[in-house]
């Protein structure tokens, strides 16, 4: 599978449907935009019916992409045009996220009602078996509830599309509709791995400037009758004090090549094989 973007359109004949074009969009994004992706669920009964709906002028709503449960992708608007998916929305110092973001709709019925007979009902009255149900707590709700599960091919396709869009447009932010319109919207909901998507695709760039984590300091006990303590992590370094006695409690600071920097009343390096955890 080799998906590309050319002239703000996805290219992959096997994967894409070109049957739908939405009139529900504004002009081009401003320079340097889009830089954000907004993830949605359709709350519809099929990707095709949702795509069809979002292309009706009366819907006054759209998205750039709709992703089916089989991983098929419908592109309704070119990526350089502002589509109408976010509505009233705010994120950090921005409002009206349509001006900043590509909208990705995922075919999913949304929140479900427990019928008590082994089936779970969508808002449009379809009964789903437990195999299609996700039970979990929404980030904006206090109690867990039932949600339509996303399919594996669908989640994999969304990850792939996001990665492609990040590379092509320099996207720096991925948000859920539920995060930018929390009083009004619950999509994509807890069944979608939104935090994992962000960690996996944006985590590297976000953490780049953070220093490498230091090993946690802990208390250990000298486990040799006499243990030389040195200025550095090898026998070529001079000792800094008389050898440590068996049973001395020290705190670890750093580790390197089997050597451990420790601290008691002085600081220096000892061979790590002669340290043990406290009993
Ligand atoms: Zn939405």
Domain count: the total is 2
CATH superfamily of the largest domain: Peptidoglycan recognition protein-like
CATH architecture of the largest domain: 3-Layer(aba) Sandwich
Q: Can you identify the CATH class of the largest domain?
A: Alpha Beta
- The CATH topology of the largest domain is Lysozyme-like
Class inferred from helices and paired strands: alpha+beta
Enzyme class: hydrolase
Pfam families: Amidase_2, SH3_3
Domain SH3b: 217-279
InterPro entries: Amidase/PGRP_sf, Amidase_domain, NAMLAA_amidase_2, SH3-like_bac-type
Task: Write up what this structure looks like.
The protein has a six-stranded mixed β-sheet, sandwiched between helices. Strands 14-13-12-16-15 form a five-stranded antiparallel β-sheet, with no helix packed on it. The protein has a five-stranded antiparallel β-sheet with strand order 23-22-21-18-24, with no helix packed on it. It has helices at residues 47-53, 152-169, 177-180, 194-207; strands at 4-6, 9-11, 16-17, 25-28, 36-41, 65-67, 73-75, 81-83, 90-91, 94-95, 101-106, 111-114, 119-121, 127-129, 133-137, 144-148, 173-176, 219-222, 226-227, 244-245, 249-256, 259-263, 267-271, 275-276. With 279 residues, the chain is α+β, with helices and mostly antiparallel strands. A hairpin with a 5-residue loop joins strand 13 and strand 14 (127-129). The relative contact order is 0.13. The N and C termini lie far apart (56 Å). The protein folds into two domains: 4-207, Peptidoglycan recognition protein-like (Lysozyme-like), CATH 3.40.80; 219-276, SH3 type barrels, CATH 2.30.30. The chain is built from four helices and 24 strands. The model is unreliable at 205-213 (pLDDT under 50). The chain binds zinc ion. Residues 40, 177, 185, 187 line the site of zinc ion. It comes from Saccharospirillum salsuginis. InterPro entries: Amidase/PGRP_sf, Amidase_domain, NAMLAA_amidase_2, SH3-like_bac-type. This is N-acetylmuramoyl-L-alanine amidase. It catalyses: Hydrolyzes the link between N-acetylmuramoyl residues and L-amino acid residues in certain cell-wall glycopeptides. Its EC number is 3.5.1.28.
């Amino acid at each position: 599978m080799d998906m590309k973007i050319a002239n703000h359109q996805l290219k992959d004949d096997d994967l894409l449907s070109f049957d739908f074009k939405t009139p529900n969009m504004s002009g081009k994004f401003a320079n340097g935009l889009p830089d954000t992706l907004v993830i949605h669920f359709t709350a519809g009964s099929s990707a095709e019916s949702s795509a069809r709906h979002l292309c009706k002028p009366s819907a006054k709503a759209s998205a750039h992409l709709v992703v089916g449960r089989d991983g098929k992708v419908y592109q309704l608007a070119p990526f350089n045009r502002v589509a109408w998916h976010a509505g009233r929305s705010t994120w950090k110092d921005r409002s009206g996220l349509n001006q900043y973001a590509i909208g990705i709709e995922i075919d999913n019925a949304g929140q479900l009602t427990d019928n008590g007979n082994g089936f779970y009902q969508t808002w449009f009255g379809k009964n789903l078996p437990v195999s299609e149900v996700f039970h979990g707590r929404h980030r904006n709700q206090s109690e867990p509830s039932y949600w339509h599960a996303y399919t594996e091919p669908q989640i994999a396709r969304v990850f792939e599309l996001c990665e492609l869009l990040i590379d092509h447009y320099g996207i720096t932010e991925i948000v859920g509709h539920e995060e930018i319109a929390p009083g009004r919207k619950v999509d994509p909901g807890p069944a979608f791995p939104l935090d994992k998507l962000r960690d996996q695709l944006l985590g590297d760039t976000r953490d780049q400037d953070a220093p490498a984590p230091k090993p946690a300091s802990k208390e250990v006990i000298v486990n040799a009758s006499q243990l030389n303590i040195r200025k550095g992590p090898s026998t070529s370094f001079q000792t800094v004090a008389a050898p440590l006695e068996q049973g001395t409690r020290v705190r670890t600071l750093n580790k390197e090549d089997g050597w451990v920097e420790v601290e008691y009343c002085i600081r220096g390096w000892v061979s790590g094989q002669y340290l043990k955890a406290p009993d």
